[in-house]
Amino acid sequence: MEKSIIMIDTPxxxxxxxxxxxxxxxxxxCGIAKTMNKDTHSxxxxxxxxxxxxxMKLAGKYDQEYFQKGGKMPSYKCxxxxxxxxxxxxx
Length: 91
Prior knowledge:
This protein is α+β, with helices and mostly antiparallel strands.
């Protein structure tokens, strides 16, 4: 099955989330997890929203001169960062 990503700013609490179904006497109703969050001031551990991972830091200077001298790009780190750039649109 194909996968999709919905990209939103990660909310700090259920009250800021676009997927919450409203405040009840039991707390905020989560429209994704189909459960309630009693603590209205934080995002619970069971929240299904996951932030994107951080980019990996590249040590050294990777410019045109580096590659002309035969230097090789650390492919895993660059691939990781390129993937995140594709997801975020280069932000």
